[in-house]
Design goal:
The structure is a homodimer. Chain A is mostly helical. Chain A is built from 9 helices and no strands. Chain A has a domain of 140 residues: Tetracycline Repressor, domain 2, CATH 1.10.357. Chain A binds a DNA duplex through α2.
DNA sequence: GACCTATATTCTACACCGTAGGTAATACCT
DNA sequence: AGGTATTACCTACGGTGTAGAATATAGGTC
């Protein structure tokens, strides 16, 4: 009966589990992700994971934390002006989301209170204060910026503006009847770069312009 | 053996199922929602639902569609100017999200290609064209606006900016160590109305200002 | 009215899920 | 060397989505 291998160390750790979970979700998506799939990926009993992470919800938190850490690590040095900081943060955030398109919905859904997130917000708001902007405008800015980022990335990374297109060929198909929506149909060609870098930069500048205008006391 | 009641009509329909699903998610949340729960709510066998809606994914689509219809029905009459239309749409969208806070994550996550959604976008973009705005700015506007709306509502409706507060008393608790984040700590009082109407109006105007500035050819 | 067919409903069954509770083997500290 | 805490595993329970088959009603055709 001494067939068991129970106590033998499997080298599990919160870090290793989180890394494997990120990989697994990247490969197979959030839908099919689960404790048991992850355990079999790690060659381990499902229950072993519970010694390091309390449950599935905590597992998802660990995934969020792991990819968020990538974001703050991305920018080696930060600009001094608040707009530069905001731009750098937004781009690093988008780069991460593109690296992990199936994880980014998690970030948008779950409240962000981790240390890395708070550090980033502290950096941005401190720079805005240095620039002499009104406190209320500063307090509002992060929610406007990250609200937009989350919503925009959610929209562009999972689906497209009506219809399926082939990511390989990049050929978009309208997939809606153009007759009742003449303006949308006319505008469709301009949405060719949906989710692309140029589009992102345009929209980011649009949002930053709004924040800047309010910062200027408009 | 003639105890079965199988063929007896239960009065199911796509509409009735969707309405019950909306009610159920409103009451008990998305986490616990499922085909079986919904079926027992309707006093019906789980598989009966499949005669009207193909599966769980289609069920979630039906929920989205149902609440989206509320949005377009909300505005009795629309302004003529594009900013007025955008404001009206944004407010109706927020009202719906507040009525169904546990459903709104669904809208942000799933691509919106339903007729009601397209109609709304057609109305907005047509008004912008009438105002003589450059096509690229028009084409970008909906994604900026609804990106922000989805991200903002996601953030405000499920959780708050770091820490739990009691919705009854409305007393917010920072719940993060203020020492490493002096600016955030100083700004915390200004986030008292987190998720409130005043805050929403300020941020909506911020985003609209950005769109307007680009519309003006900046 | 009598028959036939399409459709709505239910039943059964399967593979999977998250996780509570209990047990064994190792690692670490004294 | 001995004792304890940690790590890992096993078993089991109640839940899930849904494929497949059985059955009773509704509606059209003669």
């Amino acid at each position: 009966m001494a067939k068991r291998t129970q106590g033998k160390p499997a080298g599990l750790s919160r870090r290793r589990i989180a890394a494997a979970a990120v990989d697994l979700v990247d490969r197979e998506g959030l839908e099919s992700f689960g404790v048991r799939r992850l355990a079999s990926e790690l060659g381990v009993d499902p229950m072993s994971i519970y010694n390091h992470i309390k449950g599935k919800a905590a597992l998802l938190d660990a995934i969020s934390e792991a990819v968020l850490t990538e974001v703050s690590a991305a920018a080696a040095q930060w600009p001094d002006d608040w707009m530069g900081i905001a731009r750098t943060m937004a781009r690093a955030y988008r780069d991460m989301a593109i690296r992990h398109p199936r994880i980014s919905p998690l970030l948008a859904t779950r409240a962000q209170t981790s240390a890395v997130a708070l550090e980033a917000l502290e950096r941005l708001t401190a720079a805005m204060r240095r620039a002499g902007i009104a406190d209320q405008a500063i307090a509002d800015a992060p929610l406007v910026l990250f609200g937009f980022l989350n919503g925009y990335l959610l929209a562009t990374l999972s689906g497209n503006p009506g219809g399926t297109d082939d990511p390989a060929t990049g050929v978009a198909q309208p997939a809606f009847d153009p007759a009742p929506y003449p303006t949308l149909a006319a505008l469709a060609p301009l949405q060719a770069g949906f989710g692309g870098e140029d589009e992102f930069e345009r929209m980011l500048e649009t949002v930053l312009a709004g924040i800047a205008q309010r910062a200027a006391g408009a």
